[in-house]
Design brief:
single chain, alpha/beta, six-stranded parallel beta sheet
Length: 224
């Protein structure tokens, strides 16, 4: 059986070297390419034709989530396993929406990471169990949407929540691992869907909903 072909994309050379050393010790895995940026990584994927891409969430030129989305769009047969140093529910949700097959923390044991790569290469969907459960619990217990928020996509609802917290586009971009220009486009779209012209209107609207929900039992929350 041919080994699983892997491309590593991480801007830290030491991290890449460590992962490569672990993979090279396996007979059924093979590193066929490396890159330190999203742009170079996308080129390596096209050139090296890997089965699995091990991709850092944070890259110097753009977010790993955006790179994952590009990889999955251009090369739908390639599986993406995302690595991160921090347990972040928003990044997990973004990774899921971008089509990642797995999302694990860098503190994972080397032997576990190798097995994770095998499982992703075999077509399994692999996500960190603790983080996934926290995310789904939050989604299950969170307030239901009112008619205006129901018009928004998951990403737009997440962004409008950040707006209500007073965050700038740059802060939202950092939190959600998106480009600032992408967040700006999302904000324009969500304001149009909500029939508003200023982000302050959206912030006040969400704040008012939150205040109303805190004073009502869950069964009386407005639904969309």
């Amino acid at each position: 059986m041919a080994p699983i072909r892997i491309v590593l994309i991480d801007d830290h050379e030491v991290v890449r070297a460590g992962i490569k050393a672990m993979i090279d010790a396996q007979d059924d895995l093979e590193v066929v390419g490396e890159a330190g940026t999203a742009e170079d990584g996308l080129r390596r994927v096209g050139y090296d034709e890997p089965d699995v891409v091990v991709l850092d969430v944070r890259l110097p030129d753009r977010s790993g989530v955006e790179a994952c989305r590009d990889i999955r769009t251009r090369f739908p047969d390639v599986k993406v396993l995302m690595l991160t140093s921090f347990a972040d529910e928003e990044a997990l949700l973004s990774a899921i929406l971008a089509g990642a097959a797995g999302y694990v923390l860098k503190r994972v044991k080397g032997s576990d990471l190798v097995n994770d790569i095998r499982r992703v290469g075999a077509g399994e969907s692999l996500l960190d169990p603790e983080m996934t459960e926290k995310l789904f619990e939050r989604l299950r217990s969170g307030p239901k949407s009112d008619p205006l928020l129901a018009k928004l996509s998951d990403q737009e609802r997440e962004i409008v929540t950040h707006i209500a917290e007073g965050k700038t586009n740059k802060q939202i971009a950092d939190d959600m691992f998106l480009a600032e220009k992408t967040v700006k486009n999302y904000v324009s779209n969500l304001l149009a869907k909500m029939g508003m012209s200023r982000r302050s209107e959206a912030a006040a609207y969400v704040a008012r909903l939150d205040a109303e929900r805190e004073s009502l039992p869950p069964e009386e929350w407005p639904t969309g």
